[in-house]
Write a structure and sequence with these properties.
With 316 residues, the protein is an alpha/beta fold. It has two domains: 156 residues, Thiamin diphosphate (ThDP)-binding fold, Pyr/PP domains (Rossmann fold); 138 residues, Rossmann fold (3-Layer(aba) Sandwich). It contains twelve helices and twelve strands. β8, α8 and β9 form a beta-alpha-beta unit. α1 runs parallel beside α7 and α8 packs across α12. This is Transketolase subunit B. Pfam families: Transket_pyr (PF02779).
Length: 316
Amino acid sequence: MTTDDPRTRFPETALALVDDDPTTVIVYAEIAGQWFGRDAITRPDRVVNVGIREQLLVDVAAGMALAGAFPIAHTFAPFLVERAYEQIKLGFGHQDVDGLLVSTGGSVDMASMGRTHQTVADVALVAAVPGFSVHVPGTADEVDQLMRLAHRERGRHYIRVTAQQNSRSFDVSTPALHVARPGSGALVIVAVGPVLDATLAAAERISTATDLDPTVLYTATVRPFDGAGLRRLSGPVPDVVLVEPYLAGTSSHEVADALRDRPHRLLGLGFRREEPRRYGTPEDHIAAAGLDARGIERSVTDFASAQRTAAASRSA
């Protein structure tokens, strides 16, 4: 029975892939034992628990890839990416082997557990390793789609699974941008993964309160980024707002490169670099970062107003 929680859909799909393909293995670091523990006992050659040793986790997965297996490596995002970054860079990138890294607990999913369990830099870090595709699914169905896509196509993939999710799924079998809300194309908001619902709510508020008509585009894949789609769906001189559920500006250079020959303004929204010193619920942290509907509405409105003020000053 499938679930609607992205965090539990991941192990369901992972075990299904192991069942379907004798070359697929799961490597995990204690975390997720409630899903994989029985299989680690009954088929230890296919489901491997390395204990709380994340660097070993990645090295074992890369070694299995060198031996011809397709590994699915999993633990919490700060441990999988930040703690084991050198192993990702060398074991997978330098050795040029295939595999799927799947994290949970990204950004502020585990905010109350403190700084050790938070990361907003994981996407930027993995994207810096050559050859990685990076996916940020917004629903459980998109998690399943992207895992099966990575397994089918092989290559190197990072899938970021979080508790926050959208109310609607898209066909994410390609990295194409989807039109979630049609608009004029003069103001384009690109929502990545689980921030879509908040972005759509913000866009409706903006449309009601102003004469702006935002176009909202959605993607669950940021590497590769659909630059051609952005060009096609934007106006000749667009304002672009990029809303990412991790470090602000992580994909800003992708947008800038796509529009490099077209006059445009760009605003990157996301979590800031400053470390939060007060801990609350994930929703508290999302609101503090301005990634709830009101925060996005405020940032986008201020961004658009600044352009109008500057234009009025130039014409005065």
